[in-house]
């Protein structure tokens, strides 16, 4: 399901490789004509296709099967005669997915460092970090409020509100960007091609990521603590600030890291909505590769990998700590 939705929404890889997909056709129709109805029609078809997949997917999933959730000590399974084939398959996968891209990136960087514009690279790096920080901060503020509302004050309305937010996660980024272009031109032309509109697009696209990271730690905070805080005269805002946020702090940081990582890699919304002259690592990488200037694109790709690796490492560390905590709790109960 996730692979299908990601394939439908992907823009960068298919554009660089020259494959004709909905996202590439939408962008081409948007850039090649002043009449945006063609791009809007293609976007509407893509949205309908996405909705159709969301409707069909539950019926293909099958019935839920209840399993024994008790924690047991894992036992290694011997593969026997299949061991060499499994090792070879894993090795080939590692070479194709890691070794070859790394070698290509280093080779192109050696060729491209001599022609790199340091000022241009620095500006793209600063813009990328700024957008990542701003997008993560806004998503955490809204995500924290929504997570507390849906976890602490659950009702039919809050559940429906939560699910409506998740629906936007399935909509391709280029469709969201195109919708914001139409709305800003008609209703608020002052924010068209400004950082405000770009951050709004990031909020729509990546708010579910922040909510997913924060809902679990917030739900683990006992509701009895809210009652104790209220009995001591604390307001709801003080309870959130002094009780819930400290307990859910690691999850909040994980949500910010996840959104920041997504913003660093995001391309179609940034291309359509950014201010004139503002470039990020992703947009510079796309601009150079679109004209087959791979040596010039290599420094941007390398910086993007390095910078994106920081929130990825923080997120991976938080996930591992959360898994160990859950495992220890379940073992203690049993």
From TrEMBL:
<feature type="transmembrane region" description="Helical">
    <location>
        <begin position="243"/>
        <end position="264"/>
    </location>
</feature>
<feature type="domain" description="ABC transmembrane type-1">
    <location>
        <begin position="125"/>
        <end position="315"/>
    </location>
</feature>
<keyword id="KW-0813">Transport</keyword>
<dbReference type="InterPro" id="IPR035906">
    <property type="entry name" value="MetI-like_sf"/>
</dbReference>
<feature type="transmembrane region" description="Helical">
    <location>
        <begin position="165"/>
        <end position="185"/>
    </location>
</feature>
<feature type="transmembrane region" description="Helical">
    <location>
        <begin position="191"/>
        <end position="213"/>
    </location>
</feature>
<dbReference type="GO" id="GO:0005886">
    <property type="term" value="C:plasma membrane"/>
</dbReference>
<dbReference type="GO" id="GO:0055085">
    <property type="term" value="P:transmembrane transport"/>
</dbReference>
<dbReference type="InterPro" id="IPR000515">
    <property type="entry name" value="MetI-like"/>
</dbReference>
<keyword id="KW-1003">Cell membrane</keyword>
<keyword id="KW-0997">Cell inner membrane</keyword>
<keyword id="KW-0812">Transmembrane</keyword>
<feature type="transmembrane region" description="Helical">
    <location>
        <begin position="293"/>
        <end position="315"/>
    </location>
</feature>
<feature type="transmembrane region" description="Helical">
    <location>
        <begin position="77"/>
        <end position="100"/>
    </location>
</feature>
<protein>
    <submittedName>
        <fullName>Unannotated protein</fullName>
    </submittedName>
</protein>
<feature type="transmembrane region" description="Helical">
    <location>
        <begin position="129"/>
        <end position="153"/>
    </location>
</feature>
<feature type="transmembrane region" description="Helical">
    <location>
        <begin position="38"/>
        <end position="56"/>
    </location>
</feature>
<keyword id="KW-1133">Transmembrane helix</keyword>
<dbReference type="Pfam" id="PF00528">
    <property type="entry name" value="BPD_transp_1"/>
</dbReference>
<keyword id="KW-0472">Membrane</keyword>
